[in-house]
């Protein structure tokens, strides 16, 4: 992938993304066939997928001729990923390459592990390009994000590294809060601990960007003695947990004057679905009134589908709500047809991102993994 810097604005964003990350310009069907050769070829397949090849009942190298044929894999059972040894997830084609092991936040139970060789670099390049288009790339970063085995903190550090910025991080273990909530306790004390660390850094430094979750942004706003922009913050970038439309309006009007708020939808397994701002076209593109932003995941690395909860193979019409089904197609990670814990409204393409998106995301009322297990916490 290239890291050359080109002028970026939203009228040329897609072209710039494809220049900097040429893989984004590959046709989805072509990319799917390439990933089948990578994940099932004898010299490149991971032990995880090589062990499953004899039980599939079809030959991915011959029978998967495009993205639609990935339905042959059926729905992916996340329990298989939870049970896998991390090293077995590393493709043989990456022998001799440094890699890192990342874990999910454990919202719906035992965390999943994945490996990273090249994916994080792609995520950084894509997100940096979007920040440049918004005019807020550069400067130091305050990461009010999970650290340790969680990809989010490493992503923020990589982003700051891409422009030689400092990344100021706090100690943040999202599982502490979830464990407390599952046992019937409260998250207030730990949340206060996170906010205290952040307030200290805001007072001592002048970061340009704040990365956090919407839930923690709400808590931080209630503790700030003065507006966020007075600390030097030009943009807040959120991911993970969500907030209600009323909470979002409160934050924008009362606590974020002069600060851009850039949200994403996604997770460790799927990646970052990029926020597309509301336009006059949104009603025609299937975004319901009051739904706010739509989110668009760049193919061919991953694809989101909004499907009928009663039939996960039937995609709903634009403007209709359904359950999110995701497929990840990376050299680092192949996950076909994973039913997410979220429902969303399917939207059409946006002027910035020429592929379908999702809007009005919220947890499913009934989750196949058990809605009682889902604990969102602060991440």
Description of the structure:
The protein has 379 residues and is an alpha/beta fold. Helices cover 29% and strands 21% of the residues. It contains eleven helices and 14 strands. It has helices spanning 13-20, 28-40, 47-52, 60-63, 78-83, 119-134, 151-162, 174-182, 188-204, 214-223, 245-254, and strands spanning 100-103, 113-116, 141-143, 167-169, 209-212, 235-238, 260-267, 271-276, 294-296, 302-308, 311-315, 321-329, 334-347, 357-363. The strands form two sheets. Strands 4-3-5-6-7-8-9-14-13-12-10-11 form a twelve-stranded mixed β-sheet, with helices on both faces. It has a two-stranded antiparallel ribbon with strand order 1-2. Strand 7 and strand 8 (271-276) form a beta hairpin. Helix 1 (13-20) runs antiparallel to helix 6 (119-134) and helix 9 packs across helix 10. The chain is globular, with a radius of gyration of 20 Å.
């Amino acid at each position: 992938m290239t890291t050359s810097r080109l002028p970026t604005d939203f009228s040329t964003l897609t072209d710039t993304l494809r220049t900097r990350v040429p893989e984004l310009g590959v046709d989805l069907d072509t990319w799917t066939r390439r990933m089948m050769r990578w994940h099932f070829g004898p010299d490149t397949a991971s032990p995880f997928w090589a062990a499953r090849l004899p039980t599939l009942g079809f030959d991915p190298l011959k029978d998967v001729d495009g993205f639609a044929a990935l339905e042959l894999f059926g729905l992916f059972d996340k329990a298989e990923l939870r049970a896998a040894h991390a090293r077995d997830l590393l493709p043989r084609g990456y022998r001799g390459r440094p890699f890192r092991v990342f874990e999910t936040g454990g919202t719906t139970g035992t965390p999943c592990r994945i490996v990273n060789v090249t994916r994080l670099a792609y995520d950084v390049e894509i997100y940096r390009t979007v920040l440049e288009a918004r005019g807020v790339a550069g400067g130091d970063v305050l990461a009010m994000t999970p650290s340790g085995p969680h990809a989010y903190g490493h992503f923020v550090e990589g982003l700051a590294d891409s422009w030689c910025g400092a990344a100021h991080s706090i100690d943040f273990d999202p599982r502490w809060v979830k464990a407390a909530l599952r046992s019937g306790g409260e998250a207030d004390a730990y949340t206060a601990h996170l906010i205290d660390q952040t307030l200290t850094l805001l007072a001592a430094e002048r970061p340009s960007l704040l990365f956090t979750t919407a839930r923690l942004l709400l808590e931080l706003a209630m503790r700030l003695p003065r507006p966020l922009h007075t600390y030097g913050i030009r943009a807040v970038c959120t991911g993970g947990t969500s907030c209600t439309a009323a909470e979002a309006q409160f934050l924008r009007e009362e606590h974020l004057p002069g600060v851009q708020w850039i949200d994403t939808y996604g997770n460790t397994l799927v990646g970052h679905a990029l926020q597309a701002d509301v336009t006059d076209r949104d009603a025609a593109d299937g975004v319901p009134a009051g739904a706010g932003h739509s989110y668009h995941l760049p193919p061919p690395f991953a694809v989101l589908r909004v499907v009928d909860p009663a039939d996960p193979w039937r995609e709903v019409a634009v403007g209709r709500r359904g359950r999110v089904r995701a497929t990840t197609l990376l050299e680092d990670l192949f996950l076909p047809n994973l039913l997410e814990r979220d429902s969303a409204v399917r939207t059409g393409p946006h002027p910035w991102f020429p592929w379908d998106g999702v809007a009005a995301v919220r947890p499913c009322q009934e989750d196949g993994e058990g809605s009682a297990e889902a604990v969102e916490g602060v991440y």
